[in-house]
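User: Let's play a game. I give you a shape written as C-alpha cells, and you guess the letters that built it. Ready? Here's round one.
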C-alpha cells in the first residue's frame, strides 16, 4: 500500500530553529520550500500533489517575514485539509531569554521590529503566531535542545508514513525549577510524593535507579495517584485520537526533574506499552548540571 501524502507546515519564533528543522525534513525526503507567501500555501499543495510526478512529502516554512498575513495562516491550513490531506503543523518555540541571546550573537535585527528592540520583535511575533500555535500538532521548545536532539525529534515524528489513527504519545519528565515544557498537553505534578533528595544514599541517583524507583512508587499515595492517572488516560487517549490529534505530550514534573518525575514517567511508559500505544519517553532535565533544590 503506498504511503499517504504528508504535508508539514513548519513555523514558530524567529531564532527557534525553523531553518534547521526544514533541513532535517529535507534529509527525510520532503520537498521543502522556505518563506512561501502564506496565501499561496493551498495552491502550492494542490500543484505539488497533483502534478505529473506528485510528491508524497511536502514541507513549507512560514515565519515573521509574512507579517500581518500570519493572522490568516490557520485559514489557509484549513484549505489544505480540504484537499484531502490532514496537514501537520510543527511550531518551533524558545524562551525569550534564549531568543534574545541568539539574536545578540548573530547581530541580526528582528523581522517584526526592524527599527526597534529584539524584545519588541519577539513580543509582536508571539502575538501574530498565537492563532497557529494554539492549534499546532507539535510544539518543540528548543531552549535547551541540542541540534542532534532536534534532528532525532524531527525524524521520530516525520520519518514514517502518515497514519492519522496512530497518535504518538510522548511522556516527558521535567523539573519545575527549569520551567514547564511549553509543548505539554497534560501536566502531572508529582511534587507531593516522597522526595529522594532528602535521603543521602539516594540523592546522587535518578528515578531510573531501582532503589529510587521503589522509594518513590512503593507508598499508598503513589499507588493511588498512578491508578487514578491510568484510569484518566484510558478515558482520554481514545478521545484525543478520535479528534484526531497526531501528537500528545504528557509532562510529569517534580522539583528538579531527576527523581520523582523520572520514576513516574517510566511507570506510565510501561502502562502505555501495555495498551499497545505508540509512545516515547523523554527525560528533559535528567542530565541537568544545575543543583537540585529540595
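Assistant: Ready! My guess for every position:
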Amino acid at each position: 500500500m503506498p504511503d499517504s501524502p504528508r504535508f508539514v507546515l513548519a513555523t514558530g519564533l524567529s531564532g527557534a530553529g525553523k531553518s534547521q528543522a526544514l533541513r532535517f525534513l529535507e534529509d527525510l525526503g520532503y520537498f521543502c520550500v522556505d518563506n512561501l507567501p502564506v496565501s499561496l500555501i493551498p495552491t502550492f499543495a494542490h500543484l505539488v500533489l497533483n502534478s505529473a510526478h506528485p510528491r508524497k512529502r511536502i514541507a513549507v516554512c512560514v515565519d515573521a517575514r509574512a507579517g500581518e498575513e500570519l493572522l490568516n495562516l490557520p485559514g489557509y491550513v484549513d484549505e489544505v485539509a480540504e484537499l484531502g490531506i490532514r496537514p501537520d503543523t510543527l511550531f518551533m518555540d524558545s524562551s525569550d531569554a534564549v531568543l534574545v541571546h541568539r539574536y545578540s550573537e548573530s547581530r541580526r535585527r528582528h523581522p517584526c521590529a526592524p527599527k526597534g528592540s529584539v524584545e519588541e520583535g519577539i513580543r509582536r511575533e508571539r502575538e501574530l503566531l498565537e492563532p497557529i500555535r494554539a492549534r499546532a500538532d507539535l510544539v518543540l521548545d528548543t531552549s535547551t535542545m541540542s541540534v542532534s536532539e532536534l534532528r532525532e525529534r524531527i525524524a521520530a515524528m516525520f520519518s514514517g508514513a502518515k497514519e492519522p489513527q496512530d497518535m504518538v504519545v510522548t511522556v516527558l519528565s521535567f523539573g519545575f525549577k527549569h520551567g514547564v515544557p511549553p509543548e505539554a498537553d497534560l501536566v502531572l505534578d508529582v511534587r507531593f510524593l516522597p522526595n529522594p533528595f532528602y535521603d543521602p544514599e539516594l540523592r546522587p541517583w535518578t528515578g531510573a535507579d531501582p532503589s529510587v524507583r521503589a522509594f518513590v512508587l512503593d507508598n499508598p499515595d503513589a499507588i493511588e495517584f498512578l491508578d487514578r492517572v491510568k484510569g484518566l488516560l484510558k478515558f482520554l487517549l481514545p478521545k484525543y485520537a478520535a479528534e484526531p490529534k497526531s501528537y500528545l505530550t504528557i509532562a510529569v514534573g517534580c522539583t528538579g526533574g531527576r527523581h520523582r518525575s523520572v520514576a513516574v514517567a517510566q511507570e506510565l511508559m510501561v502502562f502505555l506499552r501495555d495498551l499497545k500505544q505508540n509512545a516515547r519517553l523523554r527525560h528533559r532535565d535528567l542530565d541537568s548540571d544545575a543543583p537540585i533544590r529540595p
